[in-house]
Prior knowledge:
This protein is α/β, with parallel strands linked by helices. Helices cover 40% and strands 14% of the residues.
Amino acid sequence: MNNLNDFSLQGKVALVTGASYGIGFAIASAMAKAGATIVFNDLKQEFVDKGLAAYKEAGIDAHGYVCNVCDEDAVNAMVAQIEAEVGVIDILVNNAGIIKRIPMIEMSAADFRQVIDVDLNAPFIVAKAVIPSMIKKGHGKIINICSMMSEFGRETVSAYAAAKGGLKMLTRNIASEYGEYNIQCNGIGPGYIATPQTAPLREIQPDGSRHPFDQFIIAKTPAGRWGEAEDLGGPAVFLASDASNFVNGLILYVDGGIHAYIGKQPS
Length: 267
Ligand code: NAP
Ligand code: GCO
């Protein structure tokens, strides 16, 4: 048996939420290269159109939909439209997410709720929408994009850490509840990745020096670099493929070794 075929996504339909750019785009692109048909959504037609153009430039004939993942009716309508226009979703990547970096006691309850809504409630909503068809089809793969903050806290990200910690346990619960239907639900916990979401943490300072947080992450990462979104493609293809059919409930940290490293001594 050629084990490499186990990594193929040929004939599979993959929905990657919030994938016009950033980590979602990189994961979707890697899945396309492995043979998947790519479906993605974004909040605005403008971003969907930009995403479609970017996929086309990468040689990928993607399908794009405008949908707020927090809106259950909109998500259900999108999934029904995808099933009618593209096919039943075999692979779901719950990627869409936001962060608000505000000291907790200065954060409004509305801001806290908004982060929980996008980063935790929405993955529940989208997974709930796709699982029934996966059960009927006899297989399914769900990949939730967790975070280092699924394990660690840090100043100003209380809502995000609460959401991503919850997402880790939602991942484990979906794995527990639906494993008997040959549905595997795992998480990817990226380290610090250079995307628009982390751009504020990498801004060059007025004196031309690197952002203190940038320097901190470089010291905390054995690889001595920020991750690139493309670093997540291979792990995502693995978790979306038959090669991981007995992997369930895992949070796979793709962090360059941050979890293993006490950090480089300041020079
Ligand atoms: P990003 O550059 O900010 O992109 C986030 C994407 O999600 C955007 O396309 C955004 O759409 C979309 N989105 C946000 N809210 C949405 C909603 N309600 N409905 C539909 N789409 C929505 O973020 P990223 O760095 O690529 O991160 C992607 C995922 O990885 C997130 O879950 C993030 O928490 C997680 N993560 C990131 C890092 C990192 O270091 N970058 C590390 C660990 C985990 P718009 O453009 O329309 O806003
Ligand atoms: C932050 C960063 C992180 C990353 C990621 C790390 O402000 O600490 O945005 O939260 O986005 O989640 O895994």
